Amino acid sequence: MRILVTGGTGYIGSHTVLTLLEAGHDVVVVDNLANSSQEALLRVGELAGREAAFVKADITDEQALDAVFDEHSPEAVIHFAGLKAVGESVTIPLDYYYNNVAGTIALLRSMDRHDVRSIVFSSSATVYGEHNPYPYVEKMEIGAMNPYGRTKEQIEDILSDLGASDSRWHIALLRYFNPVGAHPSGRIGEDPQGIPNNLMPFIAQVAVGRREKLMVFGGDYETPDGTCQRDFIHVVDLAEGHAAALRYLEDHAGVFRWNLGSGQGTSVLEMLRAFEAAVGSPIPFEIVARRAGDLPAFWADPSSALADLGWSTTRTVAQMCEDHWRWQKNNPMGYATA
Fewest C-beta in 10 Å: which of 49, 155, 184, 216? Predict the structure, then answer.
């Protein structure tokens, strides 16, 4: 197939582009490079032995999107592009609603004009909010607690309404949990700008000497070791989940929701110890006060993805840490070292 990937130079996007290229698809990437590097796509081309086409454009620009559809004639879309930091979304909500929601509407309008009605959307477990018990299942009533999560929730609503209004649409909503790790080659990986918002890249930057120590937010939760538990998923497993959803949509019209997660919780300290094993030395850390909005624990029930897509995670926490460390060690300053 010919596939348009928005946000394809980002962390999850670049790994998914590689998975698609290796599966024989032709790919065109649209990205504005606001929080990513084109170097990732160049390395993807090296690993795959062939390149994805690249167009620097913003998804809010319908004219630019129309030009991409006119020139490349994609048959399906995987949609990653958007702003994604929870804390930042609280301080600049208008930017989040404009980029994420209005940008998706622009993309869907362009798709509709070009008779392209198959889309895999990068949603998030944040849509489940804090009122749901874990493990999270897709039939739960959602209710995000911050602007970032609400943009994902609103986009899910828009796509659901679209699918209900027109039976020609094939739509997958992928709610995923905590992507970590890197391609085993160490050539592509996570390269956050500024101070990392997520656990694994922060640990990695401490291990490589870019940060002094890891701050563990809260050690008195009602969990086995007092630290938060999360559902970590290897980014390559996650990329393969997108490819599986795309295959499913070829033969199924409608709107489908799947959790992509491991189905088990790993605590902050467990992940830290696993990363220390990968590095081969201790990593300094300090337990500090809880962070507002953090839930004690959550993880996915991924059984629907297994039943419908034949997909489940195959890579262990140890592999996540080993692959992430290989990336960070080989690229201590991320793609800036290229």
Answer: 49
Q: Which residues pair with 286 in a beta bridge?
A: 215
Dmax over CA atoms of the chain, in Å, equals 56
pLDDT bin (cut points 50, 70, 90) of residue 337 is low
Treating both helix axes as pointing N-terminal to C-terminal, what angle do 103-113 and 62-72 enclose, rounded to 10 degrees?
40
Cα atoms found within 13 Å of the Cα of residue 236, Cβ hemisphere only: 20
Q: Is 329 helix (H, G, I), strand (E, B) or coil?
A: helix
Those residues whose C-beta lies under 8 Å from the C-beta of residue 242, and which sit 6 or more positions away, are: 16, 19, 78, 120, 122, 174
Read off the pLDDT of residues 282-291 as tens digits, 9 standing for 90 and up: 999 999 999 8
Which amino acid appears at position 4 of this protein? L
Q: Give phi and psi for 37, each to the nearest 5.
A: -130, 140
CA distances from 196 to 177, 191, 211, 250, 330 (A): 17, 9, 10, 37, 18
3-state SS assignment for residue 55: strand
Q: Out of 11, 97, 136, 148, which one is annotated catalytic?
A: 148
Per the omega criterion (within 30 degrees of 0), is the bond before 184 cis?
Answer: no
| Spacing of C-alpha 51 from chain mean position | 22
Asked about 148 being catalytic, the answer comes back as yes
Among 278, 236, 194, 247, CA closest to 24: 247
Task: Give the tens place of pLDDT for each residue, 45-55.
Answer: 999 999 999 99
pLDDT tens profile 297-316 = 999 999 999 999 999 999 99
User: In the predicted model, what is the mean pLDDT of residues 14-25?
Assistant: 98
* Three-point CA angle 66, 67, 72, nearest 5°: 105
Give me the mean pLDDT over the 98-119 stretch.
98
Q: Which domains does the chain have, with CATH numbers?
A: 2-181+232-261 (3.40.50.720)
Structure tokens at 310: 């034949």
**DSSP string covering 99-158:** IIIIHHHHHHHHHHHTT--EEEEE--GGGGTTTSPSSB-TTSPP--SSHHHHHHHHHHHH
The whole-chain average pLDDT of the chain stands at 96
pLDDT higher than 90, residue 267: yes
